[in-house]
Amino acid sequence: MRLTSKCNIPACRWTTVILLLILSHAVMSLSRVAFEKLTELDYRGSTYYTVKNLSLYECQGWCREEPDCQAAAFSFVVNPLTPVQETLCQLQNETSANNPTAVPQRSVNLYYMVKMQIRSDNVCLRPWAFERVPNKMIRGLDNALIYTSTKEACLAACLNEHRFTCRSLEYNYVTLQCHLSDSDRRTTGQYIQFVDAPGVDYFENLCLKANQACKGNRPFQIPRIGVNEDKVSQYASLHYYVDKELQVTSEAACRLACEIENEFLCRSFLYQGAPIGNSYNCQLFHLDHKTLPDGPSTYLNAERPLIDNGERVGNYYENFCEKTVTNPHENLPLVFENTEDPSINNLTRNDINCDKTGTCYDVSVNCKDTRIAVQVRTNKPFNGRIYALGRSETCNIDVQNSDLFRLDLTMSGQDCNTQSVTGVYTNTVVLQHHSVVMTKADKIYKVKCTYDMSSKNITFGMMPIRDPEMISITSAPEAPPPRIRIVDSRGREVETVRIGDKLTFRIEIPDDTPYGIFARSCVAMAKDSKSTFQIIDDEGCPVDPSIFPSFTPDGNALQSIYEAFRFTESYGVIFQCNVKYCLGPCQPAVCEWGHESVESWGRRKRSVASNHSSDETEDDMTLSQEILVLDFGDDKNSQFLRSEASSSDFGKDKTVTIVEPCPTKTSVLALGVTCALLVLIYISTIFCYYVKKWLSPRKSLA
């Protein structure tokens, strides 16, 4: 027997649609809404709703309930006049955060939260399940490697892992590799390298309970990151978002509140002293210095508050993962970048600067134009080597029984392997006792030079982060202010000259600086009118070389030899130039004038290799100088022309006053006598006229 079945086509279509809906609903029921958070990073998106003065959790909860919301950007600003954080919540229905090639922008005091669907029953009810750091990874230390088609599947694998506690993961968007690890950035006792990795994102599991955050014990202590405690506390009180605030009776109670907090993973707290009235004195945070993109250097770069009475804001504590007892052959040192506070005296940190042999090190960095000089001073004679990590054969110094020695790190080439990014040069230096092997008594220093005209000198500091320790040393040579000098043929600075005098226009900086200068957009202006004349254009080339030639280098200075000129309506001529800096000597610009091609040090040549372009700073400085130019034959009246501005006040506008010669007492007396005589003659003439008319006989009619 043959059985057949028939189905009405429209009915079959509806049955298929219903089955698909049921299947999709079943899949969605397996997925749960979760959020990933990025700290001080912002992605482009389409904002469809903005609301002010919501809490962080209200903002995130609003996005969770809104079907159209794909991401939420939460920012806050500290009002210095009130202890209130003014907030702004922006809901976005489109975001570029899900595009692996999108580049986030740095944004201070901002948390960016992206909504996701994760198929796991272990998704926690906390505001966000993962902390995301784009283009970063921990090198090695993977417990499991799997392949997943999506990032969300990799996150679900971490939450569902039962063989070990998954504290972090990395997802490679190109190879689809998902690396699961029981270590994270806070793990101690292992060799942790948090490195750049384009196309790979790093995630930390924030659904862990407090007792799962570390492999060992998780005590709270004042962070030993080489930054002054008051500075860290001040920054946390102003720039950390307060997740929870309460009143406690003691510091121990505040610590306990952070330890047992379950609504979020509490990583730090600020205890502000004994309670006063009904005010809160305990603040809990989900942040610590590891979460901040710039790490400990964030505290150093922050400005002090607008209103600061100098009082201490409280004691700031962070959780610290204690080192666990493992196989001694697996104990490798932890390495990460750190920036130290220059206010801390190095020689008082014996546990950092002194090794087990009793030798203490005082290390300083001097940033030059072509090299980084690392100088080491010890309290007892040192024997061993100092070299650049990875270049022990080509960049080293052997030290024999010396308490003062120096290693020069070249900034170009491969001899010392100095790395540079946009004017920041970094390297790693090793102080090694033995000539061949490295021991725990050795020291490792991370040195950095930042070349920026707006920067200030930052001394170095140290932190015990490994055995041997990796210690960060940062220095930023301050760019000296330039000045303009106009000198005559004898080298004397002049203020009053004649038309046609040969003068030298100089822009100078000290000789002992690693910077070079170049100038452009120079103009000459009349003091008493609005007349201007451009002498050097925006490209750094002379507009009319017959009036003002191109700049040429003279050591660290620039100079141009020209003949004095002035404007028709003014004796005073003001010169104004735009000056920028280069690391080392600046490259000239090639200027075309007629059939000739001349070089001018007015700007960097466009054809210079790209690796030099990063050495040019983006800040500029405008200088001005004034000179008084007399006409031919004005020598006798030159004493009546004077400048009211002091020549020592360089760089400030100067005022020229032209004073006409005053009449003498004799000339005034002569003028008075002359006027009196003229009046007397006039009166006499009128008197004679009327007397003559009165005496003449009158004519009578016949």
UniProtKB/TrEMBL annotation:
The keyword Thylakoid does not apply. Residues 30-115, 124-207 form the Apple domain. CDD domains: PAN_AP_HGF (cd01099). Residues 366-598 form the ZP domain. It comes from the Eukaryota. The chain crosses the membrane at residues 668-691. Residues 1-29 form the signal peptide. InterPro entries: Celegans_DevNeuronal_Protein, CUT_N, Pan_app, ZP-C_dom, ZP_dom. Gene3D superfamilies: Hepatocyte Growth Factor, Zona pellucida, ZP-C domain. This is Cuticlin-1.
